[in-house]
Amino acid sequence: MDDKDLRGQLRLRAAYLAGEGLGYALTRPGPAPLVSEGPPTEPLEKLRIGMGDCRLCRLCEKRTRIVFGAGNPRARLLFVGEGPGADEDEQGIPFVGRAGQLLTEIITRGMGLKREDVYIANVVKCRPPDNRVPLPDEMAACMPFLEAQIACIRPEVIVTLGATAAQGLLGEKMAITRIRGTWRNFKGIPLMPTYHPSYLLRNPAAKGDVWGDIKQVMARLGLPIPRKKG
Questions:
Q1: Which of 141, 148, 19, 166 is nearest to 79 (CA)?
Q2: Which of 68-92 are b and which e, b meaning 16 or more Cβ less than 10 Å from the residue's Cβ?
């Protein structure tokens, strides 16, 4: 990252994380329904407008679209993944490819919710070439946007999908096999690391581990486990 990009990143961090134009705390006190009565949708919209045609890192060079995020701006539950893939880059919506279809099944069939009830975002908003793991400077350039999204949404629980998302928010490089299923903390918000859906596509036997993690999340949110039909 050159000096110009670094200065741009620091300006973003100062503006968004200091709460300029946002003014909302990260946590929401007391119990609430799944979709709460929180702040209006404008802060997220302003944040997206503020990103503009972001050029803070090299990922802008080959992207088709910025994939900002999708879901309910007042969601109590936030899923955070690594970055867009080919389908997401084409449509501008996170988690719409094969991994996204599996995440949707976890949300709808597993948790008994609608995808629109939660919010879904990624650590980086532009597709890395060949779906490679984002580089540290690329993650650093994009983290202010994710942190500002969290400040706008004020989720009660964050679920990180895969090692990159967990490392990005926790600031520690740890194997996902060691930390998944254990509660962590992001600025006062309970955070549950689990496997990325793409890992489950390659290793279906790990679905049971993820379901165990999701049940912990549902218990924390006070959500019932849906009964299986038949």
A1: 166
A2: bbbbbbbbbbbbbbbbbbebbbebb
pTM: 0.84
Q: Nearest Cα to 220, choosing from 201, 192, 200, 199?
A: 192
| Integer CA distances (angstroms), 165 to 41, 60, 207, 228, in order | 24, 20, 19, 31
The DSSP output letter for 181 is T
Q: Which residue has the tokens 């650590």?
A: 123
Could you state, in chain order, the average pLDDT of each consecutive group of 10 residues for the chain (230 residues)? Answer: 49 46 37 44 87 94 96 97 97 97 97 97 96 95 96 97 97 93 97 98 97 98 81
pLDDT at 229: 58
Q: What's the pLDDT at 12?
A: 52
Residue matched to tokens 């998944």: 180
The span from the CA of 212 to the CA of 136, in Å, is 30
The single residue listed with the structure tokens 């706008």 is 152
C-alpha 174/C-alpha 178 separation (Å) is 7
Residues β-bridged to residue 185: 190
pLDDT at 2: 53
Name the residue among 85, 46, 92 with its Cα closest to residue 66.
92
Q: Which domains does the chain have, with CATH numbers?
A: 3-20+40-221 (3.40.470.10)
SS3 226: coil
